[in-house]
Design goal:
Distance between the termini: 32 Å
Number of helices: 9
Pfam family, one: DDE_3
Structural class: mainly alpha
InterPro entries: Homeodomain-like_sf, RNaseH_sf, Tc1-like_DDE_dom
Organism: Littorina saxatilis
Number of strands: 0
Helix content: 55-70%
GO molecular function: nucleic acid binding
Largest sheet: none
Order of helices and strands: HHHHHHHHH
Radius of gyration: 18 Å
Strand content: under 5%
Number of domains: 3
Protein name: Tc1-like transposase DDE domain-containing protein
């Protein structure tokens, strides 16, 4: 068996960026020539600790490197300017005062600038403990979108066709599929509590 490829800090940062852009873990693994389990563990560690580098064996390491800090800052700005301001806030305001933003503890989502923006926009935000299970049904939506896009042949030669396919397939996801994901939240929480926060069928 060939030795397992070790990801550099740059590769880990690229992987997290792709994951936050909605790329499935198995696709990220293919791009970096590693097993999907490597990417899944990286995602779990990043969301739980905010680190992309491997934990040091001894001593008291710094939580992030300067490169990590720059990456988090860039992602926080992107999250606010390209997602929150033009998309999320208007959608929540259209729903009404009972709407709740369910994001996660990813460092770009919890930066001071993003938190200030959300507070000023009067958005109700769900609070998560530091090591919380990922209950967000959007993960299943990303998987469905990935399956739909992968049915297109040949693969896109550049970003333009890919964006068109993503928009087309996103609009084509049946409303019933989305409603089922939303309505599954109660059972997700029940199973999460029953398993003490550990793995569930979701």
């Amino acid at each position: 068996m060939p030795p397992r490829r070790k990801l550099s800090d740059l590769d880990r940062g690229r992987a997290i960026g792709w994951l936050q852009d909605g790329v499935a873990a198995r696709q990220v693994a293919q791009r970096l020539a590693v097993a999907p389990s490597v990417i899944i563990r990286l995602k779990q560690r990043f969301y739980a600790t905010g680190r992309v580098q491997e934990r040091q064996r001894s001593g008291r390491p710094r939580d992030t490197t300067p490169r990590d800090d720059r990456f988090i800052q860039r992602q926080a700005v992107r999250y606010q300017n390209k997602i929150l301001q033009p998309l999320v806030v208007p959608a929540l305001q259209a729903i009404g005062p009972r709407a709740i933003l369910q994001d996660d503890n990813a460092p770009p989502h919890r930066s001071a600038a993003v938190s200030t923006f959300i507070q000023q926009a009067r958005v109700n935000r769900m609070l998560w403990p530091a090591n919380s299970p990922d209950l967000n049904p959007i993960e299943h939506m990303w998987d469905e979108l990935c399956r739909r896009v992968q049915q297109h042949h040949p693969p896109p030669a550049n970003l333009g066709p890919l964006l068109q396919w993503l928009q087309q397939e996103w609009n084509g996801v049946p409303r019933a599929f989305i409603c089922n994901l939303i309505h599954s939240m109660r059972q997700r929480c029940v199973e999460c509590l029953a398993h003490n926060g550990k793995h569930t069928r979701y």
